Amino acid sequence: xxxxxxxxxxxxxxxxxxxxxxxxxxxxxxxxxxxxxxxxxxxxxxxxxxxxxxxxxxxxxxxxxxxxxxxxxxxxxxxxxxxxxxxxxxxxxxxxxxxxxxxxxxxxxxxxxxxxxxxxxxxxxxxxxxxxxxxxxxxxxxxxxxxxxxxxxxxxxxxxxxxxxxxxxxxxxxxxxxxxxxxxxxxxxxxxxxxxxxxxxxxxxxxxxxxxxxxxxxxxxxxxxxxxxxxxxxxxxxxxxxxxxxxxxxxxxxxxxxxxxxxxxxxxxxxxxxxxxxxxxxxxxxxxxxxxxxxxxxxxxxxxxxxxxxxxxxxxxxxxxxxxxxxxxxxxxxxxxxxxxxxxxxxxxxxxxxxxxxxxxxxxxxxxxxxxxxxxxxxxxxx
Length: 383
Known about the structure:
CATH topology of the largest domain: FAD/NAD(P)-binding domain
CATH class of the largest domain: Alpha Beta
Number of domains: 3
Order of helices and strands: EHEEEEEEHEEEEHEEEEHEEEHHHHHH
Strand content: 25-35%
Largest sheet: 8 strands, mixed
Helix content: 25-40%
Oligomer: single chain
Shape: globular
Number of strands: 18
């Protein structure tokens, strides 16, 4: 099979790239599962800018604030005047995005997983396994949207993620919750290397956590977390698990291979979210690939675009994460109390953005200079 572009991966990033490129070129999109959007691997908390208008029916609810719980009992409540994020039915969202790409002309290759990729000066040959048989697809450009285990990334010789988070979550029905707030729980006994979350999702309560650099399985931490009295009335109706690669590299291009989404390690280091950066990165990637196919524009133009749009934010957020990893439970408590300063709290409530959480770190540090005590060298780099 020959095509202008092969997109490997039918998640939101891959579907976005395929949809945009199919308007003017021959595009095939390979999805390793028989149905797009399955299995579920995401908490589904996003901003509206990450949800195209045609996918708005996937929105289950909206939230206007967050409560951050320290390991020692202090709670920092941040509440905006209006909606700050929405919770989506991620499976439905993925299906809508994928089928829109197909409707716009992308050729779907279902149950097709990439086994090997060989790039040359003129094309890329990707070997796909479908129902036990192998097929080679030759394309002028390969867009890798194949997640944390990306064959495309390894074949391109691009570096692996700096950290790999391991996550697990459960949906509960019947548990009591506040529909306007997301709750985040910090602490090494709760979720070492990251945090636990409680997210209202329509009539369900989505409870999960990620861990990093621990010998214990995330399921052990989740079981302990779910044993809290506040979840006693809940009945578990589903469970999902997955991995999140964080720590962006210097490039997402190698020859004729382009990377987007988790394959490019474009997930946000502070929240683990990747829908917005995946979709936005796919839009920028499609713009560059279109120019290349139409006029011979360089594929390397992709790197400065995503770096200007969100790359600096990801690098900055990873530095903030390094500070967080060095905090003891006592220091986490102390930091949250510093954030509760009225001026800092107001800044976070009015200007905090889950897509660009590190963008106001400099302003926060200037208002609360005592935060510098936690990691002076890294803190100075954020000012």
